[in-house]
Amino acid sequence: MASTPQEVLQMIQDNNVQIVDLKFVDIFGTWQHVSFHTSMIKEETFTEGLPFDGSSIRGWKAINESDMYMVPDPKTAWIDPFLEVPTLSITCSIVEPRTGQPYSRCPRSLAARAVAYLQSTGIADTAYFGPEAEFFIFEDVRFDQTQNSAYYFVDSIEGRWNSGREEKGGNLGYKPRYKEGYFPAPPTDAHQNIRTEMLLTMGKLGVPIEKHHHEVATGGQGELGYRFADLITAADYMMVYKYVIRNVARKHGKTVTFMPKPLFNDNGTGMHTHQSLWKDGQPLFYSEGTYANLSETALYYIGGLLKHAPAILAFTNPTTNSYKRLVPGFEAPVNLAYSQGNRSAAIRIPVTGNNPKAKRLEFRCPDATCNPYIAFSAMLMAGLDGIKNKIHPGEPLDKDIYDLEPEELARIPSTPGSLLDALENLQKDHAFLLEGGVFTEDLIQTYIEYKIDNEINPINLRPHPYEFALYFDA
């Protein structure tokens, strides 16, 4: 893999590359791209960038100030395995042409500011993140919304609801039961081969791959795993992850969704996010002999995450559908508590024995509809605020929280009940995100307004199909 502009130019020559595809991410986590002929890519491109129109990107520029520059990062270069013409993909950060400064609403530049702020505090020099993004593989997806109708339909060869369906060649059974899809061997796991192809393709693109497996829900739920990395690299990998999974699925006539709750009455899909802080090559979250061998630094980081969770969920769980996953009864982490090896708590401390380098925490709330650059940065800022202000998380909760008596459960804080609740919490509690200029007031307000105007209000205005079942004959 390349690490310098010169090595990228050599990659272009060695692989007969004809097109260079420059990608960048918008505020809401969608990869945008522009394809250039290789004659446009020079060594100075990696410092000066290439121009584009930013006025059509959601939440970015007005048309009267639309000129922007994308600056490629040579460390992110890989040959695209899905395109017919040899094409080199490179991830970019965005620069203001008038000032030469990173664009304040560019998520990758925001993540760079978060890392710089971490280092300026002296607390640590590296934040490692290891996301575990789940997804569904479907064979058929249809949806529509008109003035007089609304519906969606998803289908999977694995769906338990198809156990009685007549299928070409005969129905062979082997449909995972509801909530029993975790780790079944083929033929019940019908997607072993396609997930293997997804994983190996990611590996060829430089992502340090680890594993893949079926997840709990029926209907094609799965997960791939890659090794943790520093904050920006981990977010880069997550963008590659989503790109690869979607395109491998499409190659096989299937489709992938990261929607947190595409199926009613079965488990949703999350993005459990492992994280730890290091300094001078040494881990900071380990202390032998304490609860779960957690250091004081780790406890305060947890305290910050739990305190600010209702606000940062606006970024880590950024869709109205996210809060259909965050409900009791489906292994969802709705309880803002921490515990060792306990998947019913929002923060799980994985059991790693006496290995200081493996000591980390797992924040189980996020889902993969988030923008990873912004979500990881928000989690880091919450944790750092906990360390700076010595916010202790209280006692751990080493119980199955789902089985607690109502009186005890009522004493445990919970996640917001809707995206609007999360946005309102973000509006009230975001001073910690502004530290070091990492987030800006402009970005936060733009984000809140966009979500309310373009997602929450449009959904609230439309009749829901289930309302007809409830109220048609009222």
Describe the protein in words.
This protein is an alpha+beta fold. The chain is 32% helix and 20% strand. The protein contains 13 helices and 18 strands. It has helices at 5-14, 45-48, 107-121, 192-204, 231-251, 296-316, 322-325, 372-388, 406-409, 419-428, 431-434, 441-461, 465-471; strands at residues 19-25, 31-37, 50-53, 67-72, 78-79, 87-95, 126-138, 140-145, 150-155, 209-214, 221-226, 229-230, 255-257, 271-279, 282-283, 338-340, 347-349, 361-363. Strands 7, 10, 11, 12, 13, 14, 15, 16, 17 and 18 form a ten-stranded mixed sheet that branches. Strands 1, 2, 3, 4, 5 and 6 form a six-stranded mixed sheet that branches. α4 crosses α5, α5 runs antiparallel to α8 (372-388) and α10 (419-428) runs antiparallel to α12 (441-461). The radius of gyration is 23 Å and the shape is globular. The protein starts with a helix and ends with a helix. The model has no long low-confidence stretch (mean pLDDT 93).
Give the tags.
474 residues, globular, six-stranded mixed β-sheet, single chain, ten-stranded mixed β-sheet, alpha+beta
